[in-house]
Specification:
about 550 residues, alpha/beta, globular
Length: about 550
């Protein structure tokens, strides 16, 4: 038996798991000695057919997937249909390269451009390379890369699990997920949390762990133990039972031990997510991402088309709140019908509300549809704009929302400038929600998908907590509620800190609501405020987390 070894990555989906390793097949690459092309027209036809087959397969998977996975799969299928990618492959074919080599070369050209652009494009590099690998497999006539068949609960390990694979994993057999690359907000992290599968990313040497090796993973701490001793397995099992028992007694609205209310909400992506989340013990939706309505459309969806979709999202929640984020797209998330042209730095360009200012017709049709669906369902609909930086932008958005008869207008605070001037921004609207993923990225000048910068993107960074505190100060001054809908809301210890800073709602993957509710119920508001002060006074992110862990309720730590 192998010697016990402990490694630490980044925990992105909570819980513990134990099982044998199943290694995902590595990407298919062209043979080093591939023969050059002698018939360019025939070779190009084969390449086009390969990309078309990849797109069709991804769309077929999307048709049976849940909303969040469906969005990712549809967006990935669009990559396979990209005309520029096909043209790039055609140039390499015309230069005499073999079909597989031409595909791989075109993909790497695009990958370099995506990485240089940063932002949303950098996030799509994993998806792009997955499309390329599948197209290479198609032209070579070999099986596409993917998760092998297995029959017992196992730990799936991959270099960087592609969305096409994550989205279709069998939850009954996948005990946990480990990736060698990826980040806190990668598609693997988002989907694993949505599916309730413990997951660790950024684990060095993960792909070198032999198939069948037993491993234990901790999705909270990021610790992975290779060939664990029976004592650790027993302790993890006992911990799972303690957690299950504790969660079974925790229900109802979120509140601290002294009954300070903190609303616990879900992040969703569409009607199927809504249907799944609505029966759960939560207080509504804190982030309904509307991008899926637009992503695969070649023309702007009509008001009627949008209304039908929004109605299906609102109906399951009855009179509970549903907070809608208007279209978060633009130069860094291009739409076929709203392309504003290339920008040198799309992550800092005309995205979110800035696109709406350029194309107010898109915003107005979306608001009209949201208002109609709200009237038809009687839902408590609240609408917020992404990428708001100034009080003037907030006022412009709020005016348009109210003109459409929607009573509550809000803003996403994900730009440090808006956080620092939140008193003025919030004076123009009814509420705010902190997008801590982007807020950390912009505060620390670190790309969200740059794995090597994960330490800077840690939401425990004291500088990020300082910016959140500034936003909460403005909310307190204006009397406006402020929530969090970033990944940090689902961290039970960080949820205590956020509550202490002044946050009034926390929105997260539904699988994380129970443990956050439990954490809040075990601490009073003054205790949360003291934990927040300790975190902000710390020198480093690790120091902040350690300080809070040392002072948090020991009964909570026993189940984390």
């Amino acid at each position: 038996m192998a010697d016990t070894e402990t490694r630490t990555g980044i925990g992105v989906s909570p819980g513990t798991a134990y099982g044998p390793v199943v290694q995902v097949a590595p990407p298919v690459r062209p043979p080093a000695d591939e023969a050059p092309t002698t018939d360019a027209d025939a070779a190009l036809a084969d390449v086009k057919a390969a990309f078309a087959a990849v797109a069709s397969e991804l769309e077929a998977r999307a048709a049976t997937a849940d909303d969040t996975a469906q969005q990712i799969l549809k967006a990935t299928a669009l990559i396979a249909k990209d005309k520029g990618l096909l043209k790039a492959a055609g140039r390499h074919v015309a230069a005499g390269k073999g079909k597989a080599t031409a595909v791989a070369a075109a993909v790497e050209e695009y990958a370099a451009q995506f990485e240089a652009l940063g932002g949303y494009f950098a996030e799509r590099v994993t998806d792009l390379r997955d499309v390329g690998s599948r197209a290479v497999a198609a032209v070579l006539g070999v099986p596409a890369p993917g998760v092998p068949h297995f029959t017992e609960p196992s730990i799936v390990v991959a270099e960087d699990l592609a969305p096409a694979e994550t989205a279709t994993l069998d939850r009954a057999l996948v005990a946990g997920i480990i990736t060698q690359h990826g980040g806190r907000t990668s598609h693997t992290a988002i989907l694993a949390a949505q599916m309730g599968i413990p997951a660790v990313v950024q684990l060095a040497g993960a792909t070198g762990i032999p198939v069948g090796t037993p491993v234990a993973i901790d999705g909270d701490s990021g610790v992975v133990t290779i060939a664990p001793d029976p004592g650790l397995i027993a302790e993890q099992h006992a911990r799972r039972e303690r957690r299950a028992a504790a969660l079974a007694t925790s229900s109802g609205p979120g509140a601290t031990r002294d009954r300070h209310h903190v609303a616990l909400l879900a992040n969703i992506g569409g009607p199927e997510d809504a249907q799944a989340a609505a029966p759960l013990d939560l207080e509504g939706v804190g982030l309904f991402r509307t991008e899926f309505v637009f992503l695969s459309a070649t023309a702007a969806p009509t008001v009627e088309e949008q209304t039908a979709i929004y109605r299906r999202v609102f109906e399951p929640f009855g009179d509970r709140r549903v907070v809608v984020r208007t279209l978060d797209a633009g130069a860094d998330k291009p739409l076929a019908f709203a392309d504003l042209g290339p920008e040198e730095n799309p992550a800092l360009g005309r995205r979110g509300l800035r696109l709406s200012a350029e194309r107010p017709d898109l915003l107005d049709s979306q608001l009209a549809a949201l208002a109609a669906a709200a009237r038809e369902t009687g839902a408590d609909v609240r609408v917020m704009a992404p990428m708001v930086a100034t009080a003037e932008e907030a006022a412009w958005f709020a005016r348009r929302v109210r003109e459409h008869g929607i009573p509550k207008a809000g803003v996403m605070i994900e730009v440090p400038g808006a956080a620092l001037r939140s008193e003025h921004v919030l004076a123009e609207v009814d509420f705010a929600s902190l997008g801590t993923n982007d807020l950390a990225q912009y505060t620390m000048a670190a790309d969200r998908m740059q794995g090597e910068l994960s330490d800077l993107l840690d939401p425990w960074q004291p500088a990020v907590l300082d910016v959140i505190a500034a936003a909460c100060d403005g909310a307190r001054t204006t009397g406006r509620p402020i929530g969090v809908c970033g990944e940090s809301a689902g961290d039970p210890l960080l949820a205590l800190v956020l509550t202490g800073l002044g946050v009034s709602s926390l929105s997260m993957a539904p699988s994380k609501v129970g443990i956050v509710r439990l954490a809040l119920s075990m601490h009073s508001l003054p205790e949360c405020q003291r934990l927040a002060a300790l975190a902000r006074a710390a020198r480093t992110a690790r120091d902040a987390q350690d300080a809070v862990r040392a002072e948090a309720d020991h009964d909570l730590l026993a189940v984390l």
